[in-house]
Structure formats: structure tokens, C-alpha cells
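go over my protein:
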Amino acid sequence: MSSSFKTVKTIMAELPPLSSYLRDEKRYWAHRDAQGLKKPETLSEHIDLVNHYLLCLVEHHQLDPVIDSLIQTYLEDLDRSNADLAEEIKKQFVYAICFHDHGKINQNFQADEEKMANSFFKDKIEEKSPLSTNHSGLGAYIYLVKQLDDILTQFHGKDQIRLLTTAYVLSYIIFKHHSSMLNNLIIETVSFDTLFPNRSKEHSVQFMQEYLDYFLFDINPKILMLVGNKKAVENCFLENSKSSALYGLVRLGFSLLTASDYLATNEYNSGTSIQDLGVFSTERINQIYDNVSKNKYRVNNPSKINFNALTYSELDSYQLLNPTKQSGENLNILRKEMGIELLRNLRNNLESNLFYIEAPTGGGKTNLSALAAIELLKSSKGKLNKIFYVFPFITLITQTVASLKEAFGLADDEIIELHSKASFTEKSDNDGLYGSDKLNYISNLFAHYPISLLSHISFFDILKTNRKEKIYLLHRLANSVVVIDEMQSYNPKHWDKIIYFIRYYAKPFNIKFVLMSATLPKLDKIDTIKEKVQDFTYLLPNAHENYFLNPNFCQRISFNFEYFERTDLSLEELASKLIQESELYTLYDYGPAKPLGSVYTIIEFIYKQSATDFYKLLIESSFFDEIFVLSGTILEHRRQYIINYLKDKKNRNKKILLITTQVVEAGVDIDMDLGFKDKSLIDSDEQLAGRINRNVNKKNCTLFLFNFNAERAVYGDDIRLKMTREHISSTLYKKILETKNFDLLYDLVINNRNNWNVTPYTENLNSYKAHIKELRFTKIAEEFKLIDSKNISCFIPLEIPLTVSGTPFFSSKELEFLESHKIYPTSEEKIDGAEVFNLYLDIIKHRLDFISQKIREKILQSIMSKYILSIFASPKIEEQLKLFSDMEKSEYGYYYINRWTDFYSEEIGMDTSKLYGIEESQFL
């Protein structure tokens, strides 16, 4: 069977205009202006706009091959490859979007004062209508009648059953297009059981049948018995539930329907047409490629040399040297050699959809991934036109934005951060608030930017969530490069689902996935998907031998296990050891990298309170010039100040101690001399090691591993902890860290998952895949949560400075927004959090029209995030927080901590010793 069918454009061109099959079509309205300032939009006009945006989305994102591939896979899974069947399913797919609003002919919808207030239908209200003012159910009914009639007229035998199945399934997106989420009740929904819960379904379906007289359809009366017939629906699903492809087809259809409908409705409401859908043109890709591969200096920073140009210039002739002598120069040679090897392997495997970049800490993974991404875009000759970067933590997102802008020479309107703390990104600055901001809101909502950076949680939500606002973005993933960093950050119990979804979408959506990490689990070893991973390509296939074991990486630091197994270690003894080792290190002189008399020491605890207690102990010491605390309860402006302070070369002659929790492991770009770490997971220990002697320009750098907090409280259900305790001796633990052979741990973990997935009567990947085949959308979403814990968001109403280390902390857009609401900087150039929270209360109590309200909330959200910290929720914590909070103000989503000075400070964050009966393990 050919994998290329009629295009969406051709199918839509063959669709007759509404006027040719709906009587008096101009009488029906789709939308009206609440203020009455513009003419109502007719149903025909809205359908034309929806179809226009559908075609734009399909063509910009090159979705025809994606739709074709999913349909072909579905039929192949049923052992029935047939071009006529495939063409009919694709028509059903397109018509589900084009027909979705036909239910707006419902007279009650037209007449209702809250809906259309259409005067023509004022005296035509059906008081006893089972539809009330609903239009989605009637739209699905009209769609099903027409599609089922076509099926029974043109097809026979089992082919009818196959096509009835797809028609029923695709009608679901019409039923749900005004719902906030999909659910597990697809059979009940498409059988009309859920539409009329308190009425006779038979009577209600017969009532909808009367609306067929409004259309000029020639319908075979026999097919009406199949609409609303639950037994018929169940038989179809039973016959055709062998394929998981329908899951992708339904979600893609839902994404396109809701996005097209939203964009069309926005154009009527705002008068703003969306032209820029945020994809790279071939010409722009070529420009960026030249910026990376040819320009001697960085486009956005002409004072900075573009070392990637040298990598490209030597790509064909260079002989890999793999120098082993430790030096900053050799480190840069190794980084270049990794780039050369990566590009060579990539060019030999361009047909692959899944790539691994396993590179040592300090090897420049972000730059390597950028080389891979632009090389893939360039070589695709226009087939790939977007890049998504996916990270475990927001801090990694914010620092990578700057790196990518500089590496690629990007404009501000080519890249966006998609997370709760991100400021309101602007693509347009004309036409005032009404036009420009509404256009910007749409661009933010639908990520109309060629490069998007988002969290693991947000990205995998796009792949599997049942929530509409996340599914909006699914169509954008097609024909893109997706770079996923630090995949091992999450619990191994989900690794099989992670790789399942990556493989599920990679081929049909033509997504090139690039997974990268310094401690990368080989997820292709998972048995349940092993037979389908021929396209896994390791871009640095001999990374362990050539790079990880190179002294420039593996001997940057040494590991000290003196306190590794101690169970009686006190903070006082630990403090004494830390000061002793730090004093000794001040005697070394390594030039500007580490002047004589200076030392940068870092210590990491598992619990936040241990870090606070250690700070209280060390603050009495006169040895260190500065002692900083960096934990999950430190607000962002303070975090930025600390990192900038550590990176400022003017401070390199000082003695500095950084006391932290695991937040510093997440790629924070600092370079310390000595480290102390409370052991947790092996890969976590390696992450902290990566913050020490990053540029190989010092000697005698050591990481001391000790045993203080109980790892179980944080990693209790992580199989890595169990495998380490049962199978990894202290000797082997040390060997793994020193040789960087993390497979010794990961193989144990993956074997455990493999065994679990063949264990009968357990909820494993096989049972999860059954949910996908049976379209249980809620279960699919709920049984795959990368983080499954409840958090409490606390608002700390302190005053935050306008600038941090000379860099604006509030954007000009944020300051303009605050000023427009009469909030101005204090005499000390700070913004008062109490005023910000009062503004928040005012905005949620005095709402504007939908999009204007969303714009206000989005801008305010990025401002408020500067004052918000999140902590694990528990009844005890909530009871204690109430003692320090204004509970009247805390009814709107955040605990408003008005008595924050009693247990919180900017310097050390939250001091949980001031909270009665709280376990310190609940704060990180």
C-alpha cells in the first residue's frame, strides 16, 4: 500500500461549500461580539476560517505524511493494507475537523441570550430539547450519520467494520472539543450515553434525527440504527483494538481541531490574523548553519570566537588525537574532537530517529546537541523545521536560552521558554495592547516559535496528557528535532514508558530525538521495545574509552571515601574536616584559576534543614570570607546573585563556602575547588562532581563523600537506591565513580524493569500499552507521572531588587505592567511583594474578557514566581504554615506568608526548625 494518499488540501477542496448542503446556511451564527460592535460571524464564515487554519497548520508542519503514516500503521496492524480504506479514513479525519461545528444549527444554541442571541430563532426555542444549548453532541451526530452513510454505500464486509471503528473514534474529538480533557469513556461517549445522562437516549437520538431535514443529504435510513447503538460501537472496538495507532490519530486530530478552532475564533474576536506559525524556513536554517559552521565570531557576540567554525573546517581531514595530558588546551581539543566525531557519525546515520550523546561532564553537551540539531535541520532540506529542548529543571532552561541565542545567532522572536516562571515573550510590538498583546498571547499559548525550551514534565504531557491545553501543541512536534537532557533525573519505574513514547512518536511524526547526559542509561536495552530500536544511533559510540576515561575528564577530581560508611558522623566533625581541607587548599597557587590564599568549597546535603544547621554552625567561623546557602527554598533573585558572585573573576581571590542541596546538581554553571557530598544516588554524586574543576585548570581537587541524611526519605521508591544497597559494594561504588562506568548500575536497574514487565498480574508496560490500544486517556495520563507529589506554593512578600549583579531581574514588560497598575519601585529600587500579591487578588476578582484576562495572568505569573517557593505538602506542614499566613489571602492558590520573617530569610531560605513537628526530610 502506498504511504501517500490524497493531501488534506485536496480533500478539503473536494468538500462542497456549506451552502450546497445546509438549507438557509446564512441564518446560522457561530460567534457574536458581546459588545455588539461588529457583525455576528456566520457559521459558514467560521467554518471557512477553521478550514483555513487547518490547512495552514498542515502545510507549515508538513502533516500529510504524519496522518498517512498513522493510518497505514493502523491498517497494517489489522493485516489489511488497502489504499481505498486509507483514503476513506483520511477523509474521516479531515471531515471530523471540518464538520465539528455543524451542531451549531441547534435552535436553542442560536436563540439563547448567553450564546448567539440570534433574533431569527427567538420564537423557535425548544423548551423540552434534550440538547439544551449543546452543539458538540449534535455536531458529532451529523458527522457520524454522513460518514456511516458513505461507509455502508461504498464498502463491504469487514472493511465496513474497520471504517465504522475509525468514524466512531474520530467523532470523539467532536464530542470533546469544548471539554477541558479527554477521558476513559470513549465508547460511552460516541454511543451518546454520556450526552443524555438523565433522559431517554432513544428519544434524544430521534430528536437529533429531525435536524437531518435541515441538510440536503441523501441518507440511507438503515444507518440511523448504528448511531447511538452501543452494541455496534462495542463490537467495532472489540474487532479493531489491536492497534495503538488510533491513539496518535485521535490526539493529532484533537490537537488540530482545537488549535484551528481557537485560531479561527481569535481572528473573529480580536480581528487579528495569525500569519507566523513559528517554523524555520529553509533560508533561515541555511543562515543559522552558516553562523555555526563558517563565521569566525559569534553573531550575537562579535567579541567571542566561534570555535564551531574550526570544528567544521577540519571535519573531513582531522585525525583524532585524544590527548591525555591534563590541560585546558587539551580539554578544548577533546571538546572539538567530540564535535567532529559526532558530526561524522550523524552524517552517516541521518535516517535514524533516535540519537544518543553520552559525553563526560565538562565535555560541552549543550554545544554538541546544538551541532546535532542544526546539522539535522540542514540535512533534512526543509523536512525538519523546529527544535525543542527538554530539561529536568527550569534553571537549565534559562541558561540554555542564552547559549543557543549566541551559538545560532537567534533573534528574540525565534526562541521561547515554556514554563511557569517565563516572562511574556513578545513577537509583535505594534497596535497597542489590544492587537499586539493578544497576538503575543496566541504565540505564547501555541508556542509559535521555531525553538522552544520546556521541562520534561511539560514535554511528556504533550505526548500523553488528556488535558486539552497541552494537546494543543502535539501537531507542532511533527518534523522537529527534540533534544532531551538528563533523562536519568527521573524515577526508573518510568524509563520504559519514556522510551516507549519516544519510539511511538519518532517515526510517524518524523521527530529526531537526541538524548544526552553524562550518566545516560541505555534505554534501548529495555526488552519490551528492544526489537524496534534498530535506529538507535550512538553519536559518540566509544565515548567511555575515548573520553570518559581520558584524564582530562576522569582525573579532574579524586574521590575521598573516608566518611562514606560512617553512621555516627556529626555536623561538628564534618565542619572541622571541611575547614581543615579548605585551609590546606588555600596553600596552592594555580594562577588566575585559583590564586594563592583562596578556596571555593561546596557541600551538599540531602535535606534543607541540614544545610541550614550547617550554615548556623559555620557562620561562627572566621575562616570563610563568604558563606552562601543555595537550596530549594532560596528565591530566584538570591540564587542568581550567588551564582553570579561565584562566576565573577574579581571574587576568585576569596575563601567562599557554598552550602547547598541537590538543586546545584542540575547543570548550574559554577566551578568549585573542593566538594563534600552526602551520598545519595551514584549518578547524583557524579552530577555534583561536575561542578568541581570544570575546566581542568587546577590540581588536587577532591570530592569527599559522607553519610549523614537518610537517602530513603527522598529516593525511597527509586530502584537505583535498592539496587545500590543490594548489589553495589563500597569498592564497586568507588569504581563506578572513578571509571565513569554507570552501566554497572543501570544494567541492574533495566534488568529489574525487564523482569517486572514480564511478571503476570502486575501493572507494567504491557498493561499500560493496553490502555493506549483501548484509548483510556485518563489512565494513560495518570499512570505516567514523572513527579507524583503534591506541592504547596508559598508567596513570600519581601522586597526584591530591580537588578541582580547589574542585570535587570524584572523585564521592561513586567515593569510597564506593574506601573500600569500603579506599582512603582521603592526608594531602594525594589518591588514590594505585598503590593504584587494585592494586584494578583484584584486581577482574579475583577476579570476581563477571556484573552485579556489570560494575558494579565501570564504577565503577572512571571512576576509572582519571583516571590514563590514550593515545598512538599503534608497535613503537618499545612497546619504549621497557617500559623504564619494570612488565611483570607491564602484562599486563591498560594499560602500568603505574611509572617515570613519568623522562619524565613533571603540568605538561608526556610528554617524548618521554627516549624513544630515537621520532619526535615520534607524540605530539599
